[in-house]
Amino acid sequence: MRQARKQGRSGRRSWVWALLLSLFSAAAYWLTPWPISWEIARLSRPETLASLPERGANPRLNQLIYEMALARSRGHNPTNVLRQGVNWGGSHGPRQRWVEASLERNFDIATRLGLLTSENLRRLERGRSAIITTGPYQGELAEVDHIVPVSLAPELGNELANLELMPASLNRRKSNRVGQRQWAYAQSFHEAGLLTPESLERLRAKSRMP
Question: Any idea where the domains of the chain sit in the sequence?
Answer without folding.
Answer: 33-207
